[in-house]
Specification:
Length: about 400
């Protein structure tokens, strides 16, 4: 699109097409929290994303395979993504027990202090549940403390058992607070793991009998490099030269320049292949990433917010736990045509939250997913119509007013 890198496209999978830009709804443990498959379908969501690490631990990828794969196991007929387990390298490692996010304000990023930063990381090592080496990651289960080993090959084998339409190469998701020298080390490791993941994926594919028509699994490489432009571009060029079907954009960003960092990557990646931005769901971040050329996104935010009483509206987030809504007899949200927006009053949902009834999370989760799915549809249409910039300006003005 003129004036930006925003684009509308279609990703073809064995279980249906995904019209992009699109939100991929997060169903970590083969379930979108507080929602049935029918509820997800009613939101207009096109695809879901499940988590390799969590499903490996519970119920076990072998059980999912015996059930016929994730589609049968969770009763979802549309496309499914699975991540590689690489994010858990971050969440169980550098981020474990700390208030560290993969998206942080630049004021919270540690300076490139080299030896001092490495010394601090060493002192914190006992807090972590995973240890990284050149061949993979050894981690302790957050459930029972049992020890497990992930390598690129193991990640591919698990994801093949899970049977998603789109899988990701194993990578190391780095903290935004590690220094540049460690980012360089981790980037080289991620690139080696990408090659190993691709080889194992092709080996597994070659062993499928010719008459097995279950599905075709696409594999995406994951771009890393932290907040450094040269490392980001290097990673995009390196992975772009490999035989991946598409690309994930992972790792850490500063909140202040997410659009810029993503643009660096997309300027280097092959234009004809899809780009998925991992773990992004805030409306402003979605607009910036679409503008920078991303196609799909996943994030736990809409259902997480719902469990805490927060509801999306076109005029911003409403906290239904606030006392003023206890007697508010207006409809849930007259600005959004979600499946539940006109069926319930705010007073009723407020009552459910204060009574600790799980139905509150179910209703508001469905509303929030619908809100973001519809936003993506409206963004797609604005790109097709050539008025993306105007739509972005008007939406954000109302939402953040």
């Amino acid at each position: 699109m003129k004036g930006s890198n925003a684009r509308a496209g279609v990703i073809h999978t064995q279980h249906g097409d995904i019209e992009t830009p699109a939100l991929i709804v997060v169903g970590t443990k083969a379930t979108v929290k507080a929602m049935t498959s029918d509820m997800i379908l009613a939101t207009g969501a096109q695809a879901v994303l499940a988590n390799t690490y969590h499903l490996y631990l519970q119920p076990g990828d072998d059980i999912v395979s015996r059930a016929g794969g994730l589609h049968s196991f969770m009763n979802w007929s549309g496309p499914i993504f699975t991540d590689s387990g690489g994010f858990q390298v971050f969440s169980l490692g550098e981020a474990y027990g700390k208030k560290v996010s993969k998206i942080m304000a630049s004021s919270l990023i540690l300076p490139n202090s080299g030896e001092d930063a490495h010394a601090k990381r060493g002192q914190e090592g006992t807090e972590k549940l995973c240890a990284i080496d050149e061949e993979g990651v050894t981690f302790k289960s957050h459930i029972d403390g049992s020890e497990h080993r992930f390598t690129p090959e193991k990640s591919m084998q698990i994801q093949w058992n899970l049977g998603a339409d789109i899988i990701f190469a194993f990578d190391e998701c780095t903290s935004p607070q590690v220094p540049r020298d460690y980012q360089e080390e981790a980037l080289a490791r991620t690139h080696r793991w990408a090659e190993q993941s691709l080889r194992e994926h092709k080996r597994l594919k070659s062993n499928v009998p010719p008459d097995d028509t279950r599905f075709y699994q696409a594999i995406f490489g994951v771009v890393q490099g932290g907040q450094y432009e040269d490392l980001r571009r290097e990673s995009a060029r390196t992975l772009g030269a490999m035989d991946f079907d598409g690309f994930g954009i992972g790792g850490s960003f500063t909140k202040d320049d997410i659009g810029t960092a993503v643009r660096w990557v997309n300027e280097e990646l092959p234009e004809e292949k899809p780009r998925h931005l991992l773990g992004i769901g805030e409306p402003i971040d979605i607009f910036l990433a679409v503008e920078a050329g991303c196609d799909t996104f996943d994030c736990v935010i809409p259902t997480r917010l719902a469990r805490h009483g927060h509801m999306y509206t076109k005029n911003g987030i409403v906290n239904l736990r606030n006392s003023k809504y206890r007697s508010d007899m207006s409809k849930l949200d007259i600005t959004t045509s979600s499946p539940v927006s006109m069926q319930y009053t705010r007073a009723y949902i407020s009552h459910l939250y204060h009574s600790h009834e799980m139905l509150a999370s179910m209703i508001v989760s469905q509303h929030n997913i619908f809100f973001l799915v519809q936003l993506m549809k409206d963004i797609r249409q604005s790109i097709i119509d050539g008025n993306f910039n105007l739509f972005k300006e008007n939406f954000l003005k109302d939402y953040y007013s």
